[in-house]
């Protein structure tokens, strides 16, 4: 099984090819060349964790064989950052893991994931301006939601869903207050902030999708998000505690002029990013996610180990954004039912 020391040496390549580019191999190296055959980029297969291709290009069958041989995934995305295919090297034969996934019907893990998410939302607000009364009020409200989740016994999914929704309204209203925030509407994209969130969350989603595939999970079988056709519910579950990484980058990126409203255009009521800016924006989000990649990897690895052993979620490891560390929930929940 892949360990942290091995994973930390790996690279994730995000490539947005111009028309006519080709991805091939030579002596166990991945070669990216233009339509004239000129080499633009080269890397050894031993260093690749995932190759994410945004757009259209030619990929040889030799690349697919090497993805299997060296254990890296090739993720294909549209220009709008929608994943449509993955060629990977996960632990596909891990039937025991799948059996445990399909037989799990509890809500304890869902509650744990939401506790972790709201804790990180709380700390993100805490990084903005602690003395601001509006921010302080929001932090207090999030603390109340945390107490309900931590103190609750066998909360049903609808209750957890309601708490998450209420916490998110409090959080986002304060996170982007000065930008005229009107609500989180991912499908509608009524403003460029919602469009930015979708881009950042998509990059995070694909990264976690790759990790879960490496460990052999059926990514369509979640523990919190409901399962329906073609939705990778488990990826949606596991990415929840890490969403504030994207939120904080947007907050900083707008302040630093990395993200600008004029880089977006409105089409049929939806705000979309200019294509020529896509590579630049993806790189900003990817850099932040890669800074935390070891923590994300350890989180997924520890989730896998805890789930396989049937541990109580009190013993699962929690990612704490403020500390950049993994800690169990157990220490502060000894009196939980």
Question: N- to C-terminal separation?
Answer: 35 Å
Strand arrangement in the largest pleated sheet: 1-5-7-8
Number of strands: 12
Mean pLDDT comes to 86
- Total domain modules: 2
Summed up, the helix count is: 11
**β-sheet strand percentage:** 15-25%
Q: What descriptors fit this protein?
A:
four-stranded mixed β-sheet; 11 helices; single chain; 337 residues; Ribosomal Protein L15, Chain: K, domain 2; 2 domains; Four Helix Bundle (Hemerythrin (Met), subunit A); alpha/beta
Topology:
Blueprint: H1 4-7, E1 11-15, E2 22-26, E3 29-33, E4 39-44, E5 48-54, E6 58-59, H2 61-70, E7 73-77, E8 83-87, H3 95-103, H4 108-126, H5 133-151, H6 157-175, H7 192-214, H8 233-239, H9 243-255, E9 264-267, E10 270-273, H10 278-291, H11 293-309, E11 317-320, E12 325-328
Helix pairs in contact: 4-5, 4-6, 4-9, 5-6, 7-8, 7-9, 7-10
Offer a concise description of the structure.
The chain has eleven helices and twelve strands. The protein is an alpha/beta fold.
Report on the structure:
It is a single chain. With 337 residues, the chain is of the alpha/beta class. It folds into two domains: 4-87, Ribosomal Protein L15, Chain: K, domain 2; 95-332, Up-down Bundle (Four Helix Bundle (Hemerythrin (Met), subunit A)), CATH 1.20.120.920. It contains eleven helices and twelve strands. The chain has helices spanning 4-7, 61-70, 95-103, 108-126, 133-151, 157-175, 192-214, 233-239, 243-255, 278-291, 293-309; strands spanning 11-15, 22-26, 29-33, 39-44, 48-54, 58-59, 73-77, 83-87, 264-267, 270-273, 317-320, 325-328. The strands form four sheets. The chain has a four-stranded mixed sheet, with helices on both faces. Helix 5 (133-151) packs antiparallel against helix 6 (157-175). The longest helix has 23 residues, at 192-214. The model has no long low-confidence stretch (mean pLDDT 86).
